[in-house]
Amino acid sequence: MITINEILNLTLFKKFNVITGKEYLSNTVTTAVILEYESSRINYAGYCYGYFVLVSYFFASTNPELVNGSIKSLIKKHVSGIALKLLPEEHLPDEIIQLAKENHVPILTFYDEFMEDLIININESMKTRAQYIIQEEKLNLIMNEKKDMDEVQRIVHEINPDFKEKLISATLISKESSTNLQVHTYFDSLMYHRSKAEQSNSWTFVKSGYDVILICTFEEKETKGLHALAYFKEILVQNGFNPESFFIGYDAEPVDLCMIKESVKKSQVAANVAKFQKIDCLSYKYVGVYKYAISIVQDDILCAEIKNKISILEEYDKLHDANLIRTLISFVENNGDYAATSKECFQHTNTIRYRIKKAEQLLDLEEATSDEEITMLVRCYHLLSQKI
């Protein structure tokens, strides 16, 4: 299954023009076909929503009634979209364009491309989508359900039969707004590059929501002196990805294949922290306290508690113009240094001390652990601001 918008992002469809129905390019396509004009199929039984129909308009010069009548029939059957191959100087009759608008059927035009190639391109893309959706489901089984080592090994080799004994993983988060269309485009590009490759690989890209997981495997001897980030970037470039378009989080420590869950989770944490800190690449080894803060914001009960504490501070700031949150952030970022916080906030040191004490009172923090709790609160506040 694919949408017309996604079809237009495929390699062979870049020069297509949309002449009507731009607002309906989200129509779903389940079948792509070439229109036939035989009289026995003039009613086009079976054509319906889900069909993306390619039509050669060249016959209109010799039999316009048949061609235009066929297009009208397809529109009335509410097909998902129609792509017409016609000369640049040719134009569709206004009545067809109006009918398409009324029936929410987008009409596109093209000229240079062969229709058979277009059909192949669409079908290959849908096949790829089905494949990576299945792989995502398999990875989710490992990530979200308790499996023994043998079961994990079996599922992992279903994802890629050529996986070796050791693995490292990376999570790629787009620096742009992530959408289904965007992640589909990544895998369409991957499909295009893989079609040119003649050999199997011991690495695999797996969709994970709007993110991409890169799982790389090695023999034990191949892990010696391995530079994980350089290896990841090399694979990205080879497959048409621009590493600079992503926040890349990775677990550089090679682990046994059955430890894939732990490796992927660490790479996901590192990628999310890299996104927050606006760091292009980050190893889990250097994530620091954020590895714990992410666990808190991803837990419903603990996250609700953090949000409640933040709202208490926000309400106080709103009523008293006190800048408690800003002060706490500066205090944490300056490692508890009152003088540095005072300088950054343009406030006397005593004012900084008062604000921190006030925050501790409002949040009912224990004096012995208040510094640690404030630090964690600020880290969670940052992550929640990034909607992680």
In summary, what is this structure?
The protein is an alpha/beta fold and 388 residues long. It has 14 helices and twelve strands. It is globular.
Write up this protein.
The chain is α/β, with parallel strands linked by helices and 388 residues long. The chain has 14 helices and twelve strands. The chain has helices at residues 4-7, 64-76, 94-102, 115-144, 149-159, 180-194, 228-238, 260-277, 290-297, 300-320, 324-333, 338-345, 349-362, 370-385, and strands at 2-3, 17-20, 28-29, 31-34, 51-56, 81-85, 107-110, 166-174, 203-208, 211-218, 246-256, 281-283. The strands form three sheets. Strands 2-7-6-5-4 form a five-stranded mixed sheet, with helices on both faces. It has a five-stranded mixed sheet with strand order 9-10-8-11-12. The longest helix has 30 residues, at 115-144. The chain starts with a strand and ends with a helix. The relative contact order is 0.08.
